[in-house]
Amino acid sequence: MSKNVYFFGNGRADGTAEMRNLLGGKGANLAEMTNLGIPVPAGFTITTEVCTAYYQNNRQWPAGLEEEIRENMKKVEAAMGKGFGDVNNPLLVSVRSGARVSMPGMMDTILNLGLNDETVQGLIKSSGNERFAWDSYRRFIQMYSNVVLGADHSKFEAIIEEKKKERGVTLDNELTAEDLKDLVAQYKAWIKANLNREFPTDPWEQLRGAINAVFLSWMNPRAITYRKLHKIPEEWGTAVNVQAMVFGNMGDNSATGVAFTRNPSTGENVFYGEFLINAQGEDVVAGIRTPQEISLAASQQWAKENGISEEERKAKYPSLEEYMPECYQQLLELRKKLEGHYKDMQDIEFTIENRKLYMLQTRNGKRTGQAAIKIAVDMVEEGLIDKKTALLRVEPEQLDQLLHPMIDPKAKVTIVGKGLPASPGAAVGQVVFSAEDAERWHEQGHKVILVRTETSPEDISGMHVAQGILTARGGMTSHAAVVARGMGKCCVAGCGEAVVDEANKKVTINGHVFKEGDWMTLNGSTGDVILGQAPLVEPEIAGSFQTLMTWADEVRTLQVRTNADTPHDAKVARDFGAQGIGLCRTEHMFFGPEPERIKAVREMILAEDGEARKKALSKILPYQKADFIAIFETMKDLPVTIRLLDPPLHEFLPHDRKGQEEMAKEMGIPVEKVIEKVNALSEFNPMLGFRGCRLGIIYPEIFATQVQAIFEAACALAKKGQKVVPEVMIPLVGTTGELQKIREYSVKVAEEVMAREGVKLEYLIGTMIELPRAALIADQIAEYADFFSFGTNDMTQMTFGYSRDDAGRFLPTYVEQKILKDDVFQKLDQEGVGQLLEIGLTKGRATRPNLKVGICGEHGGDPSSIEFCHKIGMDYVSCSPYRVPIARLAAAQAELKNPRRK
Amino acid sequence: MSKNVYFFGNGRADGTAEMRNLLGGKGANLAEMTNLGIPVPAGFTITTEVCTAYYQNNRQWPAGLEEEIRENMKKVEAAMGKGFGDVNNPLLVSVRSGARVSMPGMMDTILNLGLNDETVQGLIKSSGNERFAWDSYRRFIQMYSNVVLGADHSKFEAIIEEKKKERGVTLDNELTAEDLKDLVAQYKAWIKANLNREFPTDPWEQLRGAINAVFLSWMNPRAITYRKLHKIPEEWGTAVNVQAMVFGNMGDNSATGVAFTRNPSTGENVFYGEFLINAQGEDVVAGIRTPQEISLAASQQWAKENGISEEERKAKYPSLEEYMPECYQQLLELRKKLEGHYKDMQDIEFTIENRKLYMLQTRNGKRTGQAAIKIAVDMVEEGLIDKKTALLRVEPEQLDQLLHPMIDPKAKVTIVGKGLPASPGAAVGQVVFSAEDAERWHEQGHKVILVRTETSPEDISGMHVAQGILTARGGMTSHAAVVARGMGKCCVAGCGEAVVDEANKKVTINGHVFKEGDWMTLNGSTGDVILGQAPLVEPEIAGSFQTLMTWADEVRTLQVRTNADTPHDAKVARDFGAQGIGLCRTEHMFFGPEPERIKAVREMILAEDGEARKKALSKILPYQKADFIAIFETMKDLPVTIRLLDPPLHEFLPHDRKGQEEMAKEMGIPVEKVIEKVNALSEFNPMLGFRGCRLGIIYPEIFATQVQAIFEAACALAKKGQKVVPEVMIPLVGTTGELQKIREYSVKVAEEVMAREGVKLEYLIGTMIELPRAALIADQIAEYADFFSFGTNDMTQMTFGYSRDDAGRFLPTYVEQKILKDDVFQKLDQEGVGQLLEIGLTKGRATRPNLKVGICGEHGGDPSSIEFCHKIGMDYVSCSPYRVPIARLAAAQAELKNPRRK
DSSP secondary-structure letter at A510? Predict the structure, then answer.
């Protein structure tokens, strides 16, 4: 017969951390700590195999299990110096489930098992605290009745309420030992009357019931649903952990606390923790009493900050270092031992029962991004871990916190609404409701928050000058969100609670009305909309950050480029380590800053024939050329991929009557003509309409002019001795014919410009792969493409048939109901869209083995998506400037997890 | 050395029809006819290999070619009894290119080669017609100078014009022999002066030049472009055909004519043709003189129809049977021989030179659909061909002509505009501009044509009562087109020339104004919009049609279902041989006929919560149930696939102010509330929005009600003893979770209904595969699907990123520029979308080997798409009722070409 029960205690455990499958996560960890010589309350683990056998065996215990349990209980009694059911010095135990992987909320814990009318007297004796003993007993009955006997929790609450009313008190802890004793009697009476049975008094019967309840919890509907959602096989089963109770609330020689082995906020290598004398674990968390600092230094610092004298501090709030120096020393040693063993910062829980220290839990501690970096880099320097481990230790997403201003975490703020955390950071400003107003207020020296129902390319100039953007509609990849992330500007998008009244210049959010000029604060990292001016803090980028980035660059094989449309964005990205521009959108250049730009664009759109169109385009040419010169200059010798015009033309026309009138006036044409054109260009589904390379087929002169501008810019710099390698990218290709034709005339224009300028440049002409069809026929497309750049925003839209601007009506529900694991516009859908990427890449490289392949959708900045791109063999990812460091780290992690280097 | 030149003439040819690759299409056919003993003017073919060698050999003739040509020319001279360059009886030849596949317009033909100042005299002698001879000579110089010497064609035209002015005449044929002789002299002088050379007088030099010109034409830009577009390899090369000229215009003993071996219009087995005495081939086609009938019977019939007396007929328009009885008899024999050999109706061209009959061409004759069927069936009965050949002989698309009324082909009509031939057939009616007007006029007994800028589901009832529909916007798969085809109703869509002024009830098409009540005729087969009332003819469906369909059904392995939403459509389709309904759209049922329907739907949409929604749905339930009962009853025991609600909800709300006011009034709510809801539901890209199964996830009660109606209907009929197998189809599934959840509650509803009704039904729950992602993860989806139905309309939209309603702005150009071979909404894009279908089917069957798979997009009625569906292994196609016979034939052909049956 195989071993069913694994003991841990007194520095020796039957199991180890490796036995997770057999002992469950909790059981294996308790065994591991015990083996490390860490003082853990003794106990034993019933294996997951027993659970499986229990179900296979018609819900009966396997033969011999009871004996094994009894043997192990004896070991626990010996280790703890108490007796299970002993009326003088009773051993109480907790019973908990513990599967291979954590399944939160699967079963409630049963504490204080072993109490009955006799043993409670023993507990009174050993604790010297009658109230504590009776309170423990009444809690046990309540918990056990609910979890094991199936009684409704609220029944007991009702009995307590009745008692409190009778005693004229309002809080549970105002009840006396006598009251609690009476409650125990009432509980038992209720059970007898309603469940038609006695509450079990035999500790062994209690234990059997509790163990069975854990087994049965494996099949409760909550657990079944959880397993289904997380694809956990039913046959894994759960282990059962039975562990001796220890009490930090047995008097002034007892205490309980939590600590981090380093500062989880800054990463500093100092011991950091709090404790409470004569308290239980939950008291520390509940915050009813002020916890005390563990170390003397921290305690003194705390007193200073709170204006408490050293005398008062010593008297009322001594540190553990002073109050129980021997326990403190022991903790210091454990801190070192745990970090040495787990090679990571630990978050520990401890309890001191009558001056004896017990560790209840240790786990890797949560930390801020800043702390994560500092700890990882410090630990390499301390020789605890290697660089590889350090790189894997920091969540790339955590870096985001370091790259934007934040709301002072200490500040109290009034959150009035919540939207999507569309672009991180925080912003404070005065509310305005149009791009023009934003510009006007900005010119007058105000900081503004631009509030719109939704934004469109016409709002770009207003977004540029705003501190932050709030929209009522649109998702994580709506125009506002994408543009704001590109600018590294705080944005809260799709705040459905906001009713924007642009005409009357006000927005109402859950009853709060903001008029033009009112102060508002946005938290783009959380989606919070905050009343007034919250204090901001600039993030401190410590030296460790730079160190970690250098290590990441040493490791990664995937290049990181940026999506940047302006010299400013390009500069930011370059400073953040971008290795080129992967996507330079040319359409944003069509709006401001000079009003002549959009005017010329509109002239082009209104043109009746190719000649008139060319004339208008010739006015746009010098602006585009200047833009490209500025960007090439900023990026120096790094590659720059420029995408030719992508959006439908109607995006450049005003859609409101006022704007149309202004345009008509400016262009000297009747407003009817403007309206007619707007109507003629309007589409049922613009996303699937006349845009991208379709423009370049119907109006070749548009693309030709852009190509001319690119090459004139490149030639101008080449003449000054700068190396420029322009990469021209054709958007929305779905057929070989489109690319072939556009490539043909683009090459012609490029060669003409170079001949005229007397300059010979290397250049590439490639395409976006953003339509399913393009991926499917990538072998043919690659014949005409020097590079592929996967546009995963559109690819996601087409593959799912989701419009990112409209999906808000169902996508959140899909994620909530787990129909989708994530928002597919944020994290690449590897299962579906990923197949198309892989097909496209494989087929493309089959035709052209050295085809350069990258990704330039929003997913280019998402760590899990970056890992996917690395795995399938892409050359680069391209993302918003502010996500470049995140991508660098994610790329390094991807290489470490899936090495390409031999 | 291999043979370079292949002779044909005098009943013996070196080549055969099988030698197409070597001799080109024309050469092989001339050889074949010669071998059949058909009197073909003698000649020879220089092989395609010579062309290739010519290019490989620096544009030199291979050694020995000249000798071979001379030898073969001798054989031609012998066969024709004339001499090449003979001054008394000159042999003239034509020189033509001839590649493996026909490449129209690659090179102009050179005729009359061999003429010079001496041989022209011989031609005068042998023809006895001086003017003819000089005219032939001057034409030859003109043609040769242009094609071989590269002279500009217009120069010679200018010289003729000058001559005509000088002679005071306006037509070429008013010039005399003397004039033409002078032209020859002027031409030669021009050549000398401008091309700096003499016009070649040596017939052999002429011939060498002509042969080289043919070779060189293979590499001219026109040919290169044509080959690129049609993927014809350059190395195929072209053959050169040199053939003796014969003349039907040598006098009254000469003639020329064309004939069909059977009537190409009706298919009747009678000889059918026309001829002209003393004329050239082009004169018959040009229609300058009235051609005469070949057979006496036809001649007499013609005279009768044209009121010509027998005497006049005999004198002026004798039949060939009377005029040259020996030639007529020879033609009759050739007719039999040709049909016996080619096993198909032939279209022949012949020339009689001095009472000697020559055949110049024979090819399979073009014919109407009716003729195609009759000929194919007749030929089986005559033992000429087998059933398989008969089935392959009829183009499925040709059947379309037989299934709709047509405009009388003899009628003269005034075409005022042209749109897309969106739904075939013809319609005459009085113009109306709204669905309501259509209904009102219809009730008053008028026939109406509904004219709209575009249609929407609100127009359905108006479309139902209209004879035909004309829209100004939308493509072949726009709402109007799809619905009209489904109804088998004539529709011209996307007529961009039509400016519809719905407010003032008029439409202007190229200056023609139609007001309400004006008569209009539509030709949905051609897209023509016609002024007034054109006469219509009802198609005659001969017995052969039924026979052919029976044969098709014997052969095919692919089932044919129909897309039908009403009992009427279902009945039509069943009569046409549909084997079930593959797509029954439920949304059309939400509109009329009873106004309570749409009212209840709108109540549902306005509902604030699930309860209110359920209440509204309960009003819809009985209507839906009644609809399903009617359809099930019509289809009897055949399967019916019902698709749950697919379109976005806003399609059910009025979008114009008037409609919104009416709705508000009817529902007793303020109009603002209606507008608010319309705005709330409006989407940027409705095609990619909140529709299909997304509705069924967010508002499960909608789908649940539909499922309830389906099963209540099925149970009601089952109780009456009818076998019903409902197939519930979930639209727009993109994730397994969607299907899993909707399946779960649908099964629950179905089981509840059946339990309540005490009936146990077989039923299937399946899904549309219409999103790229669904195809990519079809293995997972198949776990929850009893069947797949590919929705290729949406699949095409998503795969290409085309909105079918907006693609009109670029798709026609794409087809024109050959970027796309066809309109991908009409013919399935096998290359791209086809890959997804194959992936979906293969993955689906991997999970569920017996998965039933079909297609229900518009492509289900297109023959090439049907062949694809057959090839990849689908079980069925589903198409509009009126395309069912087409699909049956196409499916038979698919099986014959790609047998599934062993």
Answer: T
